[in-house]
Specification:
Rossmann fold, seven-stranded parallel sheet, 11 helices, 7 strands, 50% helix, globular, oxidoreductase activity
Length: 246
């Protein structure tokens, strides 16, 4: 089909990644889906995706994935992990896993793919937490701050030979929340403000067709993040009840 793209989607076995993989397949694109769950990968394979099992907490899985890829038109870095804890109670293993999945594996893949895929579209699923850090998300927010900084530098480094898009979302109704907060408090308090993964996926599909620099969802939260960056002290003072949701 005209305009058919070959797209790698990481974190494709749940949440935004799975919704995106299915929407890309429905649009006629070639999808390489990478994720942890054998069951979910089987479902994606049945829908027409090429699948690779990978756990991005382990660098060997990242390396194995890179060694098996075809030439790509785009990659969507959708794998992500987080644990909502106060700084003094965060386990070291959780810190390492968070940065391995959210940052280091992405850096490794980016460097490799830029060498082997001229003109590639790099789409980083970050988070509004990368702009507004909140209580009990210090490590997660730090990983997303790192990702945003990395993507900004890569955009400048690759001008004219790659396309870089960052997608920042507020809380999304996915299994990520169940792992990040086993108490269920955050899911309950976020309630009607939770984005649907299908909504985010649709936006990413449109970005593949018409690239943009950055997407912030929902838009109102994106505007709030800009205000926070301009007036952080006032934002923390008057927005505290919204930040203490975890």
């Amino acid at each position: 089909m005209p305009g058919r793209k070959t797209v790698l989607v990481t974190g494709a076995t749940g949440g935004i990644g799975k919704a995106l993989a299915l929407q890309l397949l429905a649009a006629g694109h070639r999808v390489i889906a990478a994720g942890r769950s054998e069951t979910e990968l089987g479902q994606l394979a049945a829908a027409g995706a090429e699948t690779i099992q990978a756990d991005f907490r382990h660098s060997r899985d990242t390396d194995r994935l890179l060694a098996s890829l075809p030439v790509l038109d785009a990659v969507v870095f959708g794998a992500g992990i987080g644990f909502f804890q106060y700084a003094e109670t965060q386990a070291e293993e959780e810190m390492r896993d968070t940065f391995e999945v959210n940052v280091l594996s992405v850096m490794t893949m980016t460097g490799h793919l830029l060498k082997t895929n001229p003109g590639i579209h790099l789409i980083y699923i970050a988070s509004l937490a990368g702009k507004v850090a909140t209580p009990k998300a210090s490590v997660y927010a730090a990983s997303k701050h790192a990702l945003l900084g990395y993507a900004s530098a890569v955009r400048m480094e690759t001008e004219g030979r790659a396309v870089v898009t960052v997608v920042n979302t507020g809380p999304v109704d996915t299994g990520f929340l169940d792992l990040a907060d086993t108490t269920g408090r955050y899911r309950q308090s976020a309630g009607r403000f939770l984005l649907k993964p299908e909504t985010v996926a649709r936006k990413i599909v449109s970005v593949l067709e018409q690239p943009v620099r950055e997407v912030n969802l929902p838009r109102l939260s994106g505007a709030g993040a800009k205000l926070h960056q301009l007036l952080p002290r006032l934002s923390e003072r008057f927005g505290r009840r919204f930040f203490d949701k975890k």
